[in-house]
Predict the structure.
Amino acid sequence: MTDTTLPSPRNNLNPFAGLMSGTVGPVTVVVLSILAIWYISAAVLNTPFQQEMYERAGQEHVQFTRFIADTWAQERPVLPAPHQVIVEIWNTTVEKKITSKRSLIYHSSITLSSTLLGFLIGTSLGILLAVGIVHSRVLDKSLMPWIISSQTIPILAIAPMIIVVLNAVGISGLLPKAMISTYLSFFPVAVGMVKGLRSPEIIHMDLMHTYSASRFQAFWKLRLPYAVPFLFTSMKIGMAASLVGAIVGELPTGAVAGLGARLLAGSYYGQTIQIWSALIVAAFLAGSLVALIGILEKIALKRMGMAR
Amino acid sequence: MTALASAKDTGMVETTISASPNRVIDIDNLSLTFQTNDGPVHALSDIDLKIDEGDFVSFIGPSGCGKTTLLRVIADLEQPTAGSITVNGVSPQEARLNRAYGYVFQAAALYPWRTIAKNVALPLEIMGLSRAEQKERIARNMELVNLAGFEKKYPWQLSGGMQQRASIARALAVEPDLLLMDEPFGALDEIVRDHLNEQLLQLWAKTNKTVVFVTHSIPEAVFLSSKIVVLCPRPGRIYDVIESNLPRERNLDIRESPEFLKIAHRVRDGLRAGHSYED
């Protein structure tokens, strides 16, 4: 957190030590390594098809540099090169109108809306369940096993069921997909909040007892503030799970819009570049959402005087 | 508080139900046994103790003698398994619900997300006092423990001694006639401890509060108390009760006086005798 404030004394001895003391240095190294591995893998994986192409065209003795460049420029490569994906993302975001069916921003917004709706419902549900579980032994005994076993069911198996059943009762559109996000995101929030609401030290609970505080007062003034750091941590996990849920929800239904639909369409037509660009955008989306919660967490903890 | 005091002066209290009018705590034949997996643990056995208004009573004894448990019974944090106890003439639970006492724990137990002033305000919020009343009490009690100016600080920004003073201010803000303190200065160094002892004594002399104080320090017990209760372990019971004849107004120099040393000696004898029961 405070990597910029205290330079390590070893800096004086090693001229490169300073480079790696911040966050920029290490992150750059990791990104460059990933890119290098990606480019090499792309060249290797695309080689068989590229050789086939040269044979068909009757070309022999192609220069090595030309060969490598060609493996990175195929139309439907086994593994597209990073720059191909970046160009595709550029073309389908900045260059396309948002209203276009080929715009990734359009598709992202569809997925994002069900992600956020599902996350909102899931987080509220998780908090409510946790409050019930912490305050009632009966709920603790009866609900907790179900909550845990709910997550052992493969989401890919249950997602189509949810969507089919909800469609049968006339609910379609955003809500069925959001339900799958809810299904995935309520769990970390419920478990995290149960832990958080139970985390006050005994001495703090005793203090409330000596004040003859009501259960509501003990909850509001002690348990809830104690649980706030737990809430943010579990919301980060819940948010990432929500996005996965929304994408999974778009896969089995033949949805026409959303990042899941882009993935599915890409795989139908062998459009690997399209698949990869949808994947990257989804990852970027998840990263941004989690980072957003991280910022909210920082603000909240600072206002509570808990960030030092 | 003042009503009670004036009632005492005019002798009106004589007519109330209780035989001893200003008896604050009355413990009769009290025992507490914890049921554990290794069998019953006799934390307290046959405790008889009377504490009157304005007393400063110290419980002293080796660890495991039940001194903290006894204090927690008075505070309704533990339930006795036999015998009877009244606080202000009613059961400890009723006394707690009447907010008859302020309790200071071994650790400051401040809430880390609240500023010092907000921590002191906590019991007042729970009691539902008006904002103005809260503000007035916070200011007065923070002044009393010499913490004025630290209202906006968070607990972690204060030293251990200051945190403990804040927790005392929090207990005092309830304005109880009875103050229960469980080794409040145990974790502090000698100098800070002496200083807080003096402050506590001044406060007691000024307000005529009843204080029940748990400690394992002989000088602390003798310096503060008007009555010292020596407990011994296995089972936890009272070994000796020593009435102190030291003047109510004292300063740290009194610790060199022969009277002080005589009392300290008797406490030490009691503790030693209690220990001799051990294997």
Q: What stands out?
A: The radius of gyration of chain B is 19 Å. The first strand of chain B starts at residue 23 and ends at 36.
